[in-house]
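Exercise 7. Predict the joint structure of the components listed below.
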Amino acid sequence: MRIVLLGAPGSGKGTQAANLVEKYGITHLSTGDMLRSEVSAGTPLGLEAKKIMEAGQLVSDEIVLGMIKNKIESLTGGFLLDGFPRNLNQAEALDELLGGLKKPLEKVIFFDVSFDVIKERLLARGRSDDNAETIEERRKVYESETAPLINYYTKQGKLVTVEGVGDVNEISQRIFKALD
Ligand code: AP5
Ligand code: MG
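Solution:
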């Protein structure tokens, strides 16, 4: 199974990824998690990414594509992408990479959650990029850069929309239903 979880910051991608990985035995690839481990390890890449992440902006495509490419190429089984792709350029690069490997994406799950709910969730969590100012910036970046992917994957016939509000396990059941 090769899927993408698409949704605004705080829509529940990471939370649902855990349940999907457990059920389907696929690999979880989160560019946000990869970047955060570079930051905690204090690598040059991490140092470059830290400020951008704390400002709620997107890290450069070059960095992100470089990070994800090797991981995808070295995988043998299925995978779940979380937080990637995040703009059209990344989506096209992914299609090209997977096309070359003859392993195209199968489905894209879009989490439908309102920004009021998201804001409440993120303020309650308190990651270093979960302050009111950065949340608003991430929202704007999402609207302009990432939301166009809804249309991109709809045109490919791969998008499935899941209502992302409510009990975590109930949302997982909705996703399982969409995938089975
Ligand atoms: P990333 O780590 O991807 O963060 P994000 O997109 O901002 O999303 P979050 O991880 O905050 O939310 P989520 O959808 O995973 O929701 P979660 O399950 O955690 O990216 C961080 C930064 O890295 C970016 O801003 C950018 O700078 C950089 N970056 C990453 N990828 C990049 C890329 N491809 N290109 C360029 N830059 C990139 O849930 C959120 C909270 O809600 C949690 O506390 C959770 O417990 C709670 N929650 C979840 N579901 C429910 C529910 N059903 N009910 C109640 N609470 C819930
Ligand atoms: Mg996440």
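Discussion. Residues 132-146 form the longest helix (15 residues).
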